[in-house]
Design a protein that fits this description.
Helix content is 75%, strand content 0%. By secondary structure, it is an all-alpha fold. The N terminus is likely disordered.
């Protein structure tokens, strides 16, 4: 029975866990080996990210529908956005993805000091992104470009739809970035407490997948919101 159970857990293939697996304090009791635990955690994160893709997909679909209905308002609304700041934020997130990759690599190599540095750098880039976005939001409030009763009366009402989707998409994205900073804080604390080693760095890897997803979403948002006017040659 024991051999059959181990055979089933291994997906029908004979897998011999490392000798240290059964004595590794990071191995949860319901997993057969550290490798299986890592694969299960990675699969779980990818399933979660698929649900996130569907979540953002609904908003992107609304964007597509309304952009088709009001192309002129979309171009006009795009011209009200701060393209240089949006470009800077794009560069900031690309840099944060690099530092996140390096943090994972350092965790794999057991280089604690470097891992801490890269995690802190990733968090600094994340805070910088949110700071720039907050400045952009303040500009929109100042120029009465926030949908609602105080929206600029000189602009067509259809342009409110553009800004409604702008705040919805970028706001939800910013919320995900805030969650990501919380995750990075947790990873940083775990690193300081020597929770990771070359034999166990799963939380760092999983956190990296989430962070990269948030960055990729912005890579789509930047051209779809900020560069419409450039696309049509306006």
């Amino acid at each position: 029975m024991a051999n059959a159970h181990e055979h089933a857990l291994a997906g029908g293939h004979a897998v011999v866990p490392a000798a240290d697996d059964h004595h590794n304090p990071n191995l949860q009791h319901h997993f057969y080996s550290m490798e299986q635990q890592f694969e299960a955690a990675t699969l779980g994160m990818w399933v979660f990210l698929v649900t996130e893709i569907m979540f953002f997909g609904g908003m992107f679909t609304a964007y597509l529908v309304y952009r088709t209905m009001y192309p002129e308002s979309w171009v006009a609304g795009s011209h009200e956005l701060n393209v240089p700041l949006g470009g800077i934020n794009t560069g900031v997130l690309i840099c944060s993805s690099f530092t996140m990759v390096m943090a994972v690599r350092c965790a794999q190599l057991g280089e604690k000091a470097k891992q801490i540095g890269y995690i802190l750098a990733t968090m600094v880039f994340g805070v910088a992104f949110l700071g720039i976005k907050a400045y952009e939001y303040a500009e929109k409030f100042h120029h009465h470009l926030v949908p609602g009763p105080h929206f600029n009366p000189a602009l067509p009402r259809s342009e409110q739809i553009f800004f409604a989707l702008y705040f919805m998409l970028t706001g939800v994205h910013a919320a995900h970035m805030i969650v990501g900073l919380g995750i990075m804080t947790t990873i940083l604390v775990m690193t300081l407490r020597n929770r990771f080693s070359p034999d166990y760095y799963t939380p760092v890897e999983i956190a990296g997948l989430y962070w990269h997803f948030v960055d990729i979403v912005w890579i789509f948002l930047f051209p779809l919101l900020y560069l419409i006017g450039y696309h049509v040659g306006a």
